[in-house]
Input
Amino acid sequence: MRPGRILLFLLATLAMLALIGQLVPSQGLRLTPSFTLHFPSARDVLFPRPVERADIGFILDLATDSTDETTADAFPDSLLDERAVRVDTSKLASLAERIRLHYPNGDRALLFPLFAALESAPGTPHPVRVLHYGDSQLEGDRITAYLRNKLQVLFGGHGPGLVSVVEITPHFSVLHDATENWERFSVMERRQPTGLSRRFGAMGALARYTPVLSDTIAVDTTIRTASFTLRPNERAYNKARTWHRCRIWFGHHRAPVTLELFANGASLGRETIAPSVDLLERSWTFNTPPNELRFSFTGAHSPNVYGVSMEGRNGVVMDNLAMRGASGLELRSTDQSVLRAMYNALAPSLFILQYGGNVLPYMKSTEQAKDYGRAIGNDIARIKRMVPGACVIVIGPSDMSIKEGDQYVTRPYLEDVRDAMKASSLAAGAAFWDMYDAMGGRNSMASWVAADPPLAAEDYTHFSPLGARKIAELFHEALIRDLAIYQRQQP
Output
């Protein structure tokens, strides 16, 4: 083919592509509910608009603790109750405004009961408990593990807190090993067996080793045995690898069940428990922290096992309560009597609610964002009714990116969701932490992904392990700065 004809062919092809680019709407053509065709316009190709990424130099320079640093055991617990806990807030002074906690009417006194409890935690007979709820950003004890260690170093405490019998992802602090007949049920599952009656407890999940039966079906007389083993993960922070008390919650079984606990292979005793429709708790204390715990259940009808807590005698216990895909509104539809009973047993001083990311793909308007914010506010009010006196901190969504052309930009309506969550949280009497602003604001997720080493995964949604530590450090510093202000105001 002659060069002139080749040139004409190329020009005609480019003209056709430019025409298609002009005809296709900027939002694309939705061909199926899950597929939208996008096509660049001639202007996009010839004069691409640069996307300004957020400057995250302050994040890259931020030092974080790793699991092999001695800060995990900075001082022995025997000295904790003999000293006043004083904190250094100089590290992130230049970021004080970006990372600060927001309060109703700017009144930090909202968290003063929590700060008072933390200061006295080393010398009290019961630990101060923090329930850290969230979505997949927290899975496997991510973010929570770092925060827990920082608080336990400052205020004492041991253990990883609540864990499930069956985890859906590896846990940073605890190794699980369960027999195959255990089955996990979660509030996140759309189809629920009717016999469960949505009794999921504080973790939003439970485990059973016999099938779920409706109350109208007779219990099989076959006796079954199931067990699960918990061991500290060697990569965990030092304080999370030891514990002095173990507690388990279970119940709603229609036949006697025998429970036996083994510590380092030695039986600590067996107990046969009569059928019960209530939430039951059993606990054990250890003079020497065990390296392995094995729970054995035997009976014809499995109880719902709601979780196991491994904790210290005092100090801080912080629970990682992650639910993949959660919006933060799931527990409102569970059996509230079981939830309230478990909260009464746990006696939490602080709820941290870290949500917002999973609703963003479905947001179509600012009004929808406001509706979601109002729902979060209603859930805060429900928590405060169930656990009077507990403090609540809401953490808004991180930056999340969507691809526009060949660039990754902040998802639509993210700032609307953040604003709605903040307004409703403050109106409901909770503090609010703006994770989006703390990590750099608009288009910061792309910068986190591009960092070396990466601070976020290439899904432009989830933090990397290093990124999780960075964001946890920022939140911890915000909390500690306000604790320091509280300390200065005390006699």
